[in-house]
Amino acid sequence: MAGFRGRVLVVDDHKQTRLKMTLAVRNLGHDVEEAPDGAAALGRLAQGGIDMVVLDIVMPGMDGFQVLQAMKADTALRDVPVIVISSLEEMDDVVKAIELGAEDFLTKSFDIVLLRARINAGLERKRLRDKELEYLRQVDRLASASRMVEGKGFDPSRLGLDDISRRDDALGNLSRVFVTMASEVYRREQNLRRTISLLKGGFLLLLIGALWGVIPSLSRIVMQEGLSPFGVIFWTLWCSATIMIFLSIVSGQYPGRSRADLARYGLIGLIGGALPQMTLFWVAENLPAMVISIILAVESFIVFAVAALIGLEAPSLKRFIGLSLGLVCVLMIILPGGGAIGSHGWIWILAALLVPAFYAAEGLMIASLPETASGAIGTTTGIVVASALIATPISVLSGSFIPVNEVINGVGWAFLLIAAMSATSMVLSVIAVRTTGAVFTSQVGYAATGGGIIWSIILLGEHMTGWIAAAIACLISGVALVMPKAYGDDDEEHVFLADPAPDTRAAK
Fold first, then answer.
1. Strand, coil or helix: what is 62?
2. Which of 106, 310, 450, 453 is buried deepest, with most CB atoms within 10 A?
3. Taking a C-beta distance cutoff of 8 angstroms, is the pair 109, 65 a contact?
4. 175 and 228, same structural domain?
5. Do residue 465 and residue 356 come from a single domain?
6. Angle between helices 317-334 and 298-309 (to 10 degrees)
């Protein structure tokens, strides 16, 4: 075949014959290597890269027949064409060699034209066989890719069919169609998973909102007993800590014990646990639970505002308007005539705004926590226990400690419910973060506001005034404008795959 260059191995024990054949094949434009015997020939063949063998039959030690048998027994060598060299007196040997797998023969007194024809014909057959084998291998790869698509979790970018798709034949067309269809299946599967994740996340957010939203109402019930906020926080935090310690033991996730871990737990426990809890119980004496629930939603607005300032979220006019509506929501319940608060209620409103501010600061600190082996439950346990330890001396030294018998005989059930709701919300929050991502889960504050309003009506018999209804309308409008990007957009696409920082809000 004109223009086809191959690598030929000449095997002959006679040096002169081997040299003559080597020069002749090289003059035909092919690369040539030599082997003086059968063993040396097999050793070179094992290295690969040989396109044809010109083989003498009669050789001492391992003869041509044995070389042929060894080659045909080796899957890597059985398709290498072999031309045997013989004399006219050895025709019976030639027949035997062909029966063993040799493709053709040459006499030792060969004609150069005949040599060219035999060599080129053998190399052409080798090239066609290689193409056929490669075709079959690509068909098998395509079949394997189809089986991969039938399974779960395949990725079209990892099918490895690019080389097949570049073919300009029917197999290439089939590969391109298959890749297109596989990509469409993958896209639909991902959309379905996102939808399921959003549905799960939405359900979890509503459930967390119902659980967390009851805490302002329970706090007001507790404070109506005339108890000190410092004494109340001692029992609520230690009940939550007890539950978290139990969960930590059951799950095998324990808090870190290094100095850095303890320092982080202490700081977050103070800002995100003890201080907001004290403030919450303090204001619960003077504000309706419904109003407190609305104020707690401001945390989300604070987080988005800070995120925009530090570059975590791209600023936009729509979000600015949404944040402004959140502020209007607060002003509407502060302004005189709101009907929900007393003449000095604005002071308690301002105090209540400290709670979401503390929670927002806590969220930023949790987001900055390094990844550890503690896990979400272990880290949360460390923070809650730290909060309880901080609250203990404050409760004792202030003279506000509540004896256990007074707790049990009074509204102890409310203490336990606050702790149980906090712990349950924590577990569900971790699940929500891992299912739908941290940004989506941040909307739990809005769900908690809705839950808090409903619980305040059920448990406390509070009524929704016109001002409160208007404030809620402003809140909903602001939420719609400040809403985080939908799951799957831009950088949020795969946030749920990461190991997120624990959400300790529920432990509050």
1. coil
2. 453
3. no
4. no
5. yes
6. 140
- State how far the Cα of 470 lies from the Cα of 472, in Å rounded to an integer: 5
Residue with tokens 């001396």: 393
Q: What 3-state DSSP class applies to 463?
A: coil
How far apart CA 242 and CA 237 sit, in angstroms, is: 9
Q: Tens-digit pLDDT profile for the chain (508 aa)? A: 444 688 999 999 888 888 988 999 899 889 999 999 999 999 999 998 899 999 988 888 898 899 999 998 998 888 899 999 877 567 788 888 888 888 888 887 778 888 888 888 888 888 888 788 878 888 887 777 777 776 665 666 667 777 778 888 888 788 878 778 777 777 787 777 777 766 776 777 778 878 878 888 888 888 777 777 788 888 888 888 898 899 889 988 888 888 888 998 899 889 888 888 888 888 887 777 777 777 777 776 677 677 667 665 566 677 677 667 766 766 666 554 444 455 456 677 788 888 888 877 777 777 667 666 577 788 888 888 998 899 888 888 877 777 877 766 777 788 788 878 877 776 676 666 656 655 566 666 667 777 787 888 888 887 777 777 777 777 677 666 655 544 444 443 333 333 334 444 433 4
Are 504 and 444 a contacting pair, CB within 8 Å? no
Residue 108 has what DSSP assignment? Answer: S
- Is there a single domain that holds both residue 93 and residue 211? no
Judge whether 348 and 287 are in contact, CB under 8 Å. Answer: yes
Say yes or no: 409 and 495 in one domain.
Answer: yes
Are 456 and 219 spatial neighbours (Cβ–Cβ below 8 Å)?
no
Domain of residue 84, residue span = 7-132
Number of domains in the chain: 3
Same domain, 103 and 175: no
Helix or strand run (H / E) with residue 107? strand 104-107
The CATH number given to whatever domain includes residue 91 is 3.40.50.2300
**Do both 126 and 193 map to the same domain?**
no
Query: Does 2 fall in a domain?
Result: no
Q: Tokens for 483?
A: 């809403």
Is 0.85 topped by the overall pTM? Answer: no
Dist CA 96 CA 64 (whole Å): 11
Contact 80, 126 (CB under 8 A): yes
150 and 279 housed in the same domain = no
